[in-house]
Design brief:
The chain is an alpha/beta fold. The chain has two domains: 208 residues, NAD(P)-binding Rossmann-like Domain (Rossmann fold), CATH 3.40.50; 98 residues, UDP-galactose 4-epimerase, domain 1 (Alpha-Beta Complex). It is built from eleven helices and 13 strands. Strands 3-2-1-4-5-6-11 form a seven-stranded parallel β-sheet, with helices on both faces. Strands 7-10 form a two-stranded parallel ribbon. The N and C termini lie far apart (39 Å). It binds nicotinamide-adenine-dinucleotide and UDP-4-deoxy-4-formamido-beta-L-arabinopyranose. The site of nicotinamide-adenine-dinucleotide (NAD) has 28 residues, from α1, β2, α5 and β5.
Length: 335
């Protein structure tokens, strides 16, 4: 019996594969490598000392998905495969609806055909849009403000409806806040192509002198220092949540929804300072105007995940900064 990890070569998927393999689970990866590199697979094997099957295929291609299910005894799926760039999703909405929504539909159709009825889905805090207050808990109204967020919202509803119609189905919808950091080995981590959209990869880009200066998008928000406030969590803690979510849906049917964050708020300037202090590197930055579509603050109430999954994200912001930089340094060393 194996767990299919779609998008298992990606940032969060690769860290989750490591945790699954270290727990002794059997893993099969399906990834089209549109946003990841095959060397990630080698590095997962290096970290864990374990081999597993990898399919270079696309969830949009039903034949690819059928092949995985017919050649393996898949009884659970962790579904990471998806596109995630907010800006690109607004410019090219059909690409996002196609990949994220149609791709997920094809995947669950094949799951149903093969009697596989357990799925953990990578959703996002972005489904809440601009929350009325913080911390954000799971029953808050959903109002995604960009196409990417709407694809996550739609897939959540599709899976929820499926679990309503088929009482044997179990679904975990995991709404991630801001994952950062990397595995302590420095062998896997976040490696965006081109100019990063997110804060931590950009800070790392400045630290490695790829970019001269970080632009801080606004210091006139109603927050403690005027800059945007978020809930950053270490990707290894996040990976661990997937194992806990699997355990949960192994025992109970229906849909379970969890916010995954630390519950702690960190501003842009605080993250810059933490990075500087933990890595002893100066980060040049300049304050510019706000980024359109940004919200002032967003952090999770992690209470439900703690109570129902026994999970909490305990790694510190310093560890997140150190591990992000440790991974980047190794990449620079390789070049
Ligand atoms: P990632 O881009 O590093 O990983 C996604 C993986 O899926 C990549 O390896 C990519 O090649 C693969 N993929 C994409 N489309 C595919 C397709 N059609 N068929 C097969 N493989 C495909 O992203 P990530 O940061 O690891 O995110 C994983 C999931 O978590 C995504 O669904 C993302 O939307 C969601 N998420 C990410 C964040 C974040 O900040 N990183 C936050 C919330 C939610
Ligand atoms: C964090 C803070 C910025 C870059 C996005 C997606 C969301 C989710 C996570 C997938 C904000 C500021 C950023 C920079 C800056 N992904 N910033 N300079 O906006 O919380 O969420 O990633 O689901 O869907 O929207 O994360 O890292 O982009 O920004 O000042 O160069 O850093 O304004 O306050 P965000 P982020």
């Amino acid at each position: 019996m194996a767990i299919l990890v779609t998008g298992g070569a990606g940032y969060i998927g690769s860290h989750t594969c490591v945790e699954l393999l270290e727990r002794g689970e059997e893993v099969v990866v399906l990834d089209n490598f549109s946003n990841s590199k095959p060397e990630v697979i080698e590095n997962i094997m290096k970290i864990t000392g374990k081999q597993f099957k990898v399919y270079n295929g696309d969830i949009l291609n039903k034949e690819d998905v059928l092949k995985v299910f017919s050649e393996n005894d898949i009884n659970e799926v962790i579904h990471f495969a998806g596109l995630k760039a907010v800006g690109e999703s607004m410019e090219n909405p059909l690409k996002y609806y196609q990949n994220n929504v149609v791709g997920s539909l094809i995947l669950v159709e094949v799951m149903q055909q093969h009697g596989c009825n357990k799925i953990v889905f990578s959703s996002s805090a972005t489904v809440y849009g601009a929350p009325e207050k913080v911390p954000v808990s799971e029953e808050f109204p959903l109002d995604p403000e960009n196409v990417y967020g709407r694809t996550k919202y739609m897939v959540e509803r599709i899976l929820e409806d499926l679990a309503m119609a088929d009482k044997n189905f179990s679904v975990a919808l995991l709404r991630y806040f801001n994952p950062v950091g990397a595995h302590k080995s420095g062998l896997i981590g976040e490696d965006p192509e081109g100019t990063p959209n997110n804060l931590m990869p950009y800070i790392v880009g400045v630290a490695s002198e790829k970019f001269e200066c970080l632009r801080v998008f606004g210091d006139d928000y109603e927050t403690r220092d005027g800059t945007g406030v978020r809930d950053y969590l270490h990707v290894v803690d996040l990976a661990d949540a997937h194992l806990k979510a699997l355990d949960k849906i192994r025992g109970e049917n229906g849909t379970k929804i969890y916010n995954l964050g630390t519950g702690k708020s960190v501003s842009v300037l605080e993250l810059i300072k933490a990075f500087e202090k933990s890595n002893n590197i100066k980060i040049n930055y300049v304050v510019t105007s706000r980024r359109p579509g940004d919200i002032a603050e967003c952090w999770a109430s992690p209470k439900k995940a703690k109570e129902e999954l026994g999970w909490s994200a305990d790694k510190t912001v310093d560890e997140m900064c150190r591990d992000s930089w440790n991974y980047a340094k190794r990449k620079i060393g390789d070049k």
